[in-house]
Design goal:
By secondary structure, the protein is of the alpha/beta class. It has helices spanning about 5-10, 30-40, 65-75, 80-90, 100-110, 135, 140-155, 160-185, 200-215, 225-230, 245-250, 255-270, 285-295, 310-325, 340-350, 365, 415-425, and strands at about 45-50, 90-95, 95, 115-120, 125-135, 190-195, 220-225, 280, 305, 335, 355-360, 385-395, 400. About 45% of the residues lie in helices and about 15% in strands. The chain has a six-stranded parallel sheet. The protein has a five-stranded antiparallel sheet with strand order 4-5-1-12-13. It has a two-stranded antiparallel sheet with strand order 2-3.
């Protein structure tokens, strides 16, 4: 795809230049989780909140409030198009046709609408919260992150001349090409784009996805972005996220229920989906405790996604766990997805190829790596560690703090008192302090 990025960057002040133009411009796993939530938890109310873990970047001093509201209001106005509904219902995902049930697609097309948002400034950061029924609120996550990240990009580009923009994008293209060249020798690679939430821009993500597909062929297996998958006839890729056990755990009424919530979610997911979609994410409350206490049937799942743990350690831990449970690791999949760059992918593939089916969800440093590409200052283009998480769940008419512990102390979310209570229950085995890049 040939795009004049410099000209497009100059045109971002046009009133019609919206960042998100389709409800499908989101991660595919959000839609899979949405159907799951709609089936099993449609009456639960939640609060999502924007969290900028890169505290040194004061987003409220960079992103104009009026433009942020204009972009968010546009997202609220979006509805599922008829062609999108037909594609969702009729397409094959993970080798299965009809994953999205007709009644769910009908609800999504006829009744789904994003709820309002609350926006305020706090210590130089935008405080952005979404509240309401879980099936409605959950979809805000990716849209909000995409909007904030691209508005940050546009602010950085606004002061650049067209020549400087040409140089910027030329350097970024060379960097992408160099990464592709590093991956070419890995003939049996399984790589997908996971970069929607922190992308430099929609156009750049589309360019990256098309380039990866053209240059790496079958080694590039698809994209998490549902709109791009539909538009370019690619596989839509996704599993599930921390949101599910985080929310279900907040509904627990005892310590035993809290401990069991992470497995209750898997039972319901297994009832809803099967096959290649049975990939669990164990680190919501700590991967080591998850594997230690997991029922034997969890070892029958297709694979595991590694997020916040040091990836070699996590992969070796999973292989050892499978062997203890009498399963052949070579028949299972491990999906690495946290802050990957090309060096990590090459190293991990050399470590695990032939021992387990290794796959890679490449996110921020695929679709937002402009570090050092600015022809002058380099300000404003480094990726942020920006997330949008469930922070509270309504229980018996009152809001209750939601907690995510993670395998990385730095990534824990929730009130300090609740985080301490959860750690006392789940333990801290295998948890470490690791600097958060993205």
């Amino acid at each position: 795809m040939l795009v004049n990025f410099s000209s497009r960057a100059h045109n971002h002040n046009f009133a019609t230049d919206f960042i998100v133009r389709s409800l499908l411009d989101t991660d595919w796993y959000k839609l899979a989780m949405l159907q799951f939530i709609w089936r099993h938890f449609r009456d639960v109310k939640v609060r999502f909140s924007l969290i900028n873990r890169t505290r040194s970047v004061k987003l409220a001093r960079i992103i104009d409030e009026a433009e942020l509201r204009r972009q968010l209001d546009n997202v609220r106005s979006l509805r599922l198009k008829r062609s999108e509904a037909v594609w969702l219902q009729g397409n094959t995902f993970y080798g299965q046709r009809g994953i999205f049930r007709p009644e769910f697609v009908a609800w999504l097309a006829d009744d789904f609408a994003l709820p309002d948002y609350r926006l305020s400034e706090e210590d130089g950061q935008w405080r952005l919260d979404f509240e309401g029924p879980w099936p409605m609120v959950t979809m805000w996550e990716i849209y909000a992150l995409s909007v904030i990240n691209e508005l940050k990009t546009r602010a950085a580009l606004a002061s650049m001349t067209e020549t400087e923009l040409d140089i910027l994008y030329a350097r970024a293209k060379v960097r992408l090409w160099d990464k592709i060249e590093r991956l070419r020798p890995l003939a049996d690679l399984s790589l997908s784009d996971f970069g929607t939430r922190r992308r430099h821009s929609f156009l750049w993500q589309e360019y990256v996805v098309e380039t990866m597909a053209a240059e790496l062929g079958p080694r590039f297996i698809g994209t998490s972005n549902t709109h791009l998958a539909m538009k370019h006839d690619l596989e839509a890729i996704g599993t599930n996220a921390h949101e599910l056990p985080t929310t279900v755990a907040a509904l627990a009424r005892s310590d035993d229920e809290l401990l069991g919530a992470q497995y209750d979610v898997l039972r319901l997911w297994q009832e809803t989906y099967g096959g290649a979609m049975l990939v669990f994410l164990p680190d919501t409350f700590g991967s080591s405790q998850f594997l230690t206490n997991a029922p034997d049937w969890v070892a029958d799942w297709t694979g595991m996604r590694v997020d916040s743990k040091e990836p070699v350690t996590a992969g070796e831990e999973y292989i050892a766990w499978l062997e203890r449970h009498g399963r052949d690791p070579r028949e299972k999949r491990v999906l690495f997805s946290d802050g990957l760059d090309v060096e990590d992918i090459v190293k991990l593939h050399r470590t695990f190829a032939g021992r387990i089916r290794d796959g890679y969800g490449w996110g921020t440093l695929l679709t937002s790596d402009f570090r050092g590409c600015h022809p002058r200052s380099g300000q404003g283009l480094d990726p942020l560690s920006l997330v949008c998480k469930v922070t509270a769940v309504e229980v018996d008419g009152a809001w209750k703090e939601a907690v995510k512990l993670s395998d990385n102390y730095e990534k824990a979310t929730g009130a300090a008192s609740e985080v301490a209570r959860y750690r006392a229950i789940f333990g801290t085995e295998g948890v470490a302090n690791v600097p958060v890049l993205v």
